[in-house]
């Protein structure tokens, strides 16, 4: 049997639609337990007409977690659904969720997808071939919990009353006890979205925001205290891969397996950023929000066509910097020529960005988002990390990936780059591809070679070591393999020292 728990307070008309859809589209046996959290007269009149529901009445408002817990005390179902009163249920929603539970006994709780949910439960994240997806956290606008999970985890934490973030903390506790948290991607439930909370704060956006921040602080404090002594100093890294077509290059997929299996870190690889979160600043801000709601130390941004060396993560972490990037190359056009350049920049005397290629670990002023490791304290200092900047005429002045570094520098943080970690940028500027090109034209067109090298080496150095460069290129085989890659990298770096 299914127990459906629904706290109610405002919005009689929306609540009626919700309950009507629940009865229309739930064919299985279920009990409906409604908690009236000091509702208005219109709502009370409607609730009195629901003869088949169990009504718990709060004489005064006690909030969401406490209301849910009162209902949990009397719920009899093998499965317990905690639902908001501003939903519209859809056909077969419950049997589809049960099917996922039956496929894996480790699953403790499952949430559906929706239209109004600010995390990866959004329907835009769906894929035709994926009906279920494990995750770290759910929003409890609608969640189904097994009896076993409920008995081991318990009810909602009432410290979050009157409500907010108790769902995220419940997922933390469930996962700590070995339960899997999942999303039924083949189930969609319409959600009006925060209807009661908006009314609770008199539709005052400032008050709502301040309240939300206070709940986040409670969550962070609880998670940190919970994890003390468990982590044992192992860095916890949240790897975020912005991709809009789920097209990770094979080399990156391979390395993700290496990092996930390495016991020197605790790795979380969340679902990729996908269509529906455009533009890019919204996409990055969405993933930062998810990152901060969990207890990871670092977020490592890696583009879907970037292949960092296997040793890159450990080396970046070893520097203990708040912000540090590996080196990825992009393409620049000047006239009729196009050549690669490292996306690490410093200000010149005119306070304008210019490409900079250093050695070892050096401070920089800006970088892209291709392979950058950021400590959580950086994002905790920012209200809205990513945003585009525009000129008065509406043209783009600065991308969100560059604007964020200006903001963190204003907050006292420094950026660094490790020039010993060279990434392969497969779709845009593959260093390995450049090296193969260099080898293939060694004896044909040295001017093209010099154009390629010009992007990697300061022109004065290039002129000074022209003969040395040509001798080195002559010594290379016709086809460059991965075994030759480090030799070329070392040679290029040696010219800058």
Please state the structural category: alpha/beta
Question: Helical proportion?
Answer: 25-40%
CATH architecture of the largest domain: Alpha-Beta Complex
Radius of gyration: 27 Å
Number of strands: 26
CATH superfamily of the largest domain: Spore Coat Polysaccharide Biosynthesis Protein SpsA, Chain A
Mean pLDDT: 81
- What topology, given as strand order, has the largest sheet? 3-2-1-4-8-6-9-7
The CATH topology of the largest domain is Spore Coat Polysaccharide Biosynthesis Protein SpsA, Chain A
Question: In CATH, what is the class of the largest domain?
Answer: Alpha Beta
Overall form: elongated
Total individual domains: 3
The low-confidence parts are 435-450, 478-482
- Tally of helical segments: 18
Strand composition percent: 15-25%
Query: How many strands, what sense, and barrel or not for the largest sheet?
Result: 8 strands, mixed
Structure explained in plain terms:
- The protein is an alpha/beta fold and 497 residues long.
- The chain has three domains: 2-226, Spore Coat Polysaccharide Biosynthesis Protein SpsA, Chain A; 232-425, Spore Coat Polysaccharide Biosynthesis Protein SpsA, Chain A (Alpha-Beta Complex), CATH 3.90.550.40; 431-494, no CATH class.
- Helix 9 (250-261) links the parallel strand 11 and strand 12 (266-268).
């Amino acid at each position: 049997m299914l127990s459906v728990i629904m706290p109610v307070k405002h919005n009689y008309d929306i609540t009626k639609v919700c309950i009507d859809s629940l009865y229309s589209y739930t064919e299985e046996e279920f009990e409906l337990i409604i908690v009236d959290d000091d509702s208005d007269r219109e709502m009370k009149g409607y609730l009195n007409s629901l003869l088949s529901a169990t009504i718990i009445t709060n004489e005064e408002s006690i909030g969401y977690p406490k209301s849910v817990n009162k209902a949990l005390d009397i719920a009899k179902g093998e499965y317990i659904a905690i639902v908001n009163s501003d939903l519209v249920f859809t056909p077969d929603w419950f049997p589809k969720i049960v099917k996922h539970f039956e496929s894996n006994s480790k699953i403790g709780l499952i949430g559906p997808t929706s239209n109004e949910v600010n995390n990866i439960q959004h329907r835009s994240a769906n894929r035709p071939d994926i009906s279920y997806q494990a995750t770290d956290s759910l929003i409890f606008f609608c969640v189904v919990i097994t009896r076993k999970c409920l008995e081991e985890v318990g009810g909602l934490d009432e410290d979050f009353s009157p409500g907010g973030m108790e769902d995220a903390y419940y997922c933390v506790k469930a996962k700590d006890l070995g339960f899997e948290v999942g999303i039924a991607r083949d189930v969609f439930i319409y959600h009006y979205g925060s209807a009661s909370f908006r009314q609770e704060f008199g539709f005052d956006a400032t008050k709502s925001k301040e309240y939300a921040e206070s709940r986040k602080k409670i969550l962070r404090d609880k998670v940190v205290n919970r994890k003390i002594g468990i982590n044992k100093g192992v860095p916890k890294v949240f790897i975020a891969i912005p991709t809009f077509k789920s097209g990770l290059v094979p080399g990156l997929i391979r390395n993700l397996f290496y990092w996930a299996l390495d016991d020197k870190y605790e790795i979380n690889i969340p679902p990729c950023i996908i269509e529906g979160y455009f533009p890019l600043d919204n996409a990055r801000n969405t993933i930062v929000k998810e990152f901060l709601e969990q207890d990871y130390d670092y977020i490592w941004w890696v583009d879907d066509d970037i292949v960092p060396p296997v040793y890159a993560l450990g080396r970046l972490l070893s520097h203990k910097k708040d912000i540090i990037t590996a080196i990825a190359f992009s393409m620049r056009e000047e006239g009729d020529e196009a050549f690669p350049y490292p996306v690490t920049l410093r200000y010149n005397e005119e306070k304008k960005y210019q490409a900079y290629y250093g050695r070892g670990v050096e401070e920089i002023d800006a970088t892209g988002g291709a392979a950058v490791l950021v400590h959580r304290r950086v994002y905790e200092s920012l209200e809205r990390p990513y945003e585009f900047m525009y000129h008065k005429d509406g043209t783009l002045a600065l991308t969100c990936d560059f604007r964020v570094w200006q903001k963190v520098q204003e907050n006292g943080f420094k950026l660094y780059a490790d020039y010993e970690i060279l990434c392969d940028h497969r779709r845009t500027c593959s260093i390995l591809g450049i090296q193969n090109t260099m080898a293939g034209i060694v004896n044909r067109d040295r001017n093209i070679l010099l154009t390629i090298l010009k992007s990697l080496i300061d022109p004065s150095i290039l002129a000074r070591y022209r003969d040395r460069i040509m001798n080195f290129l002559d010594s290379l085989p016709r086809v460059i393999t991965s075994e030759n890659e480090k030799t070329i990298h070392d040679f290029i770096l040696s010219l800058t020292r």
